[in-house]
Design goal:
40% of the residues lie in helices and 22% in strands. By secondary structure, it is α/β, with parallel strands linked by helices. It has a single domain, classed as NAD(P)-binding Rossmann-like Domain (Rossmann fold). The strands form 2 sheets. The protein has an 8-stranded mixed beta sheet with strand order 3-2-1-4-5-8-9-10, sandwiched between helices. A two-stranded antiparallel sheet has the order 6-7.
Length: 216
């Protein structure tokens, strides 16, 4: 599968790209500046121990993608989605950014006017098939690619086929179980709960996740 990471120069993009490259997927890393994309490509290759990884500016790397991961900070999410909207038409786009900030170990949840950042991506790229995923996983865990990540992730989206593609892909990450959480409009509840999860982690000095029980 061809997987592109937009804004993939941070820990989430680097770690996920390395994991999927190691699994045999074709990876493209995008950034607004080619130098940053190339530097990130080199980090991904080093972390994965090789693989098919290319770099380019955002507009150039989405064309051949089957799935596009938005690993973009909250403030850059809307303009990035809007600028790439035409190229994202018909593509599966994964939003995993949370509208959070941390100030002196206190978590601040910045309520999006669109109800969730995933819905903000959908509004700004209206013809994309947006799916919310991996909100609950601590981004630093992705880069420890030999490490099993224990936790469930709730997958949301309005296109059932796109949601299945993402669930299958996420299910390749050792230890993570994807759980269908319904339509994209439910994503705000997931993004919001991450603020609670991080607060628990700060309080108890742990790196917790959660499991949904009763699913067979």
């Amino acid at each position: 599968m061809n997987i592109t990471f937009i804004g993939g120069t941070g820990p989430a993009g680097i770690g996920l790209a390395a994991r999927f490259a190691k699994a045999g997927h074709k990876i493209s890393v995008g950034s607004r500046k080619i130098e940053r994309a190339e530097n990130t490509r080199d980090q991904v290759l080093a972390l994965a121990g090789g693989g098919d990884v290319t770099a380019g500016v955002n507009q150039d790397v989405v064309g051949s993608a089957d799935v596009v991961f938005f690993t973009v900070p909250p403030e850059g999410l809307r303009p990035t989605a809007k600028s790439l909207g035409p190229q994202l038409a018909g593509k599966v786009v994964v939003s995993l950014t949370n509208p959070l900030s941390v100030v002196k170990r206190k978590v601040v949840y910045d309520y999006p006017e669109e109800r969730s950042l995933a819905e903000a991506v959908q509004i700004n790229a209206p013809e994309a098939k947006v799916v919310g995923a991996l909100h609950e996983i601590r981004v630093s865990d992705f880069a420890e690619i030999e490490r099993r990540i224990e936790g469930d992730t709730i997958i949301t989206g309005d296109d059932e086929d796109a949601k299945k593609v993402v669930m299958d892909l996420v299910g390749e990450i050792d230890g993570i179980r994807p759980v269908d959480g319904g339509p994209l409009s439910n994503t705000g509840f997931v993004e919001g709960f991450v603020a609670v999860l991080i607060s628990i982690n700060f309080k108890y000095k742990i790196g917790s996740s959660y499991r949904i029980t009763g699913i067979r």
